[in-house]
């Protein structure tokens, strides 16, 4: 198929490269010239395991990039994969998506035949139906379901394993307004995946498909917040929360995934999607108290880590190492990372923060330009009076003698990654 993908961030670049790998001709469209130049040179602007080899293999061949939205007109379908960030009150900021929709609508205005718009961006059902579809109709002069169709096809990939997640998803959710042509095109798009992996395909309505993504993320966020709550209780009773979690995870109704208690969830999706769901529900007159509680527990975990640190050391004017800045290992993304509130709390206490992350230091330097960034975990620990472990990068399991160079070896581990060893004062956040 001839496909265009609007937005070349974590989702769009992964999609463009994977769709090329599945045999489709892909045009990646982004407003950022550097991103487009890099893609055409076979490079990416993000770190994602396995992505660079795909982009370099297909760039200039089945994968091309441009800043010109008009290129979408020559393709069979266009995937919208631009950002849908949160406004300060938590509600969804759809302006980027609506601008992209308008550009796409103008592009397909003169095109002959039916064009399918596939919405990958996470968007609430009412924004999809009441703003996005009308924006394409207005810009194209065509009617939804006639000159073009719109399908909601939310994405469930995780940063850090995006390529594998796209190629081997647990499910593919396709929401249409009962438009057979949309279903046919998406079946053709995903055919290589579906036939190779026997992946369940959920066909549903557009509104339902859009909500599946929010429900999925709210459920996972709440699961982590619940195990974090349980972990905190375990700590109070001197109970090993990880042994408890291993046991409850054997219950098939609970499952063992997402049961590692710690400093909380971050990233570009859980925080903004839970906030958007709360804001959307409240504007409709309903208060989703469970989701609110999940957010509140998540907001409080970093402060709990800092309180544990306070019990051992007064960090005022002292060097404190922060190990891990990315919101999770395997990515350079610091959006929503728990490292941000931890660093803020340390700075409020007067600490001299020295941070280390194998991938995310450059991104974090844009948020905190004035703290020190070390080239290695060992360099960050040297001379430090305390260390806060925020991301479970595997290398933090092997630091061993690096702790000997600390001025005061107090380690508060927010991810249960550091090996407890003689000579350090070790505090697990929830165990
Ligand atoms: P991102 O911020 O990494 O990338 C968005 C890209 O869109 C940027 O490269 C930006 O330059 C580009 N862009 C902005 N306006 C544009 C326009 N008018 N035309 C073309 N390009 C434009 O975002 P992301 O993390 O890839 O997320 C994209 C969407 O997918 C969001 O709705 C997000 O919630 C959803 N999502 C993200 C993930 C994830 O793990 N990151 C997972 C599932 C779903």
TrEMBL record:
Which is a Pfam family this sequence falls into?
UDPG_MGDP_dh_C
A single MF term (Gene Ontology): UDP-glucose 6-dehydrogenase activity
Q: Which UniProt keywords apply?
A: NAD, Oxidoreductase
Give the EC number: 1.1.1.22
According to its UniProt entry, the protein's GO biological process terms are:
polysaccharide biosynthetic process; UDP-glucuronate biosynthetic process
Q: Which reaction does it catalyse?
A: UDP-alpha-D-glucose + 2 NAD(+) + H2O = UDP-alpha-D-glucuronate + 2 NADH + 3 H(+)
Q: Which residues bind substrate?
A: 156-159, 213, 258-262, 266, 328
Which residues carry out catalysis?
269
Determine the domain of life of the protein's source: Archaea
Q: In which pathway does it act?
A: Nucleotide-sugar biosynthesis; UDP-alpha-D-glucuronate biosynthesis; UDP-alpha-D-glucuronate from UDP-alpha-D-glucose: step 1/1
Identify the residues that the record assigns to the UDP-glucose/GDP-mannose dehydrogenase C-terminal domain, covering every copy.
Answer: 321-420
Amino acids binding NAD(+) = 30, 84, 122, 159, 272, 335
PANTHER family for this protein: UDP-GLUCOSE 6-DEHYDROGENASE TUAD
Known NCBIfam families for this protein? NDP-sugDHase, UDPGDh_AglM
Which family does this protein fall into? Belongs to the UDP-glucose/GDP-mannose dehydrogenase family.
What name does this protein carry?
UDP-glucose 6-dehydrogenase
- What species is given as this protein's source? Natronomonas moolapensis (strain DSM 18674 / CECT 7526 / JCM 14361 / 8.8.11)
The gene behind this protein is aglM
């Amino acid at each position: 198929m001839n496909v265009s993908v609007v937005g070349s961030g974590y989702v769009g670049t992964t999609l463009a490269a994977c769709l090329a790998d599945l045999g489709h001709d892909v045009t990646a469209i982004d407003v950022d010239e550097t991103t487009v130049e890099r893609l055409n040179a076979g490079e990416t602007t993000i770190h994602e395991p396995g992505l660079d080899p795909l982009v370099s293999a297909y760039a200039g061949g089945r994968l091309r990039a441009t800043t010109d939205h008009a290129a979408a007109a020559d393709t069979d379908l266009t995937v919208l994969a631009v950002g849908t960030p949160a406004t300060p009150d938590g509600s969804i900021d759809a302006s980027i998506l609506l601008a992209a929709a308008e550009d796409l609508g103008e592009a397909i205005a003169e095109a002959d035949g039916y064009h399918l718009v596939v919405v990958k961006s996470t968007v609430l059902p009412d924004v999809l139906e009441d703003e996005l579809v009308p924006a394409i109709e207005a810009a194209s002069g065509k009617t939804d379901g006639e000159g073009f169709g719109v399908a909601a096809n939310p994405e469930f990939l995780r940063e850090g394993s995006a390529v594998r997640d796209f190629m081997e998803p647990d499910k593919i959710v396709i929401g249409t307004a009962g438009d057979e042509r949309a279903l046919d095109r998406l079946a053709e798009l995903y055919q290589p995946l579906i036939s190779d992996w026997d992946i369940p395909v959920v066909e549903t309505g557009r509104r339902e498909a859009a909500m599946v993504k929010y429900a999925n993320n709210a459920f996972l966020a709440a699961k982590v917040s619940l195990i974090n709550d349980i972990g905190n209780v375990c700590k109070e009773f001197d109970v090993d929360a990880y042994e408890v979690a291993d046991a409850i995870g054997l219950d098939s109704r609970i499952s063992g995934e997402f049961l590692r208690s710690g400093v909380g969830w971050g990233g570009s999706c859980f925080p903004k999607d839970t906030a958007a769901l709360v804001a959307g529900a409240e504007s409709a007159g309903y208060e989703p108290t469970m989701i609110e509680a999940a957010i509140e527990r998540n907001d409080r975990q970093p402060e709990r880590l800092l309180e544990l640190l306070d019990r051992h050391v007064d960090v005022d004017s002292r060097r404190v190492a922060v190990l891990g800045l990315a919101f999770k290992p395997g990515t350079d993304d610091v959006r929503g990372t728990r490292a941000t509130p931890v660093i803020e709390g340390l700075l409020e206490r007067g600490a001299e923060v020295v941070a280390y992350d194998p991938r995310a230091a450059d991104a974090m330097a844009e948020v905190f330009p004035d703290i020190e960034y070390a080239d290695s975990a060992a360099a960050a620990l040297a001379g430090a009076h305390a260390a806060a472990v925020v991301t479970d990068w595997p290398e933090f399991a092997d630091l061993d003698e690096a702790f000997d160079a600390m001025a005061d070896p107090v380690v508060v581990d927010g991810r249960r990654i550091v090996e407890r060893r003689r000579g350090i004062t070790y505090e697990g956040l929830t165990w």
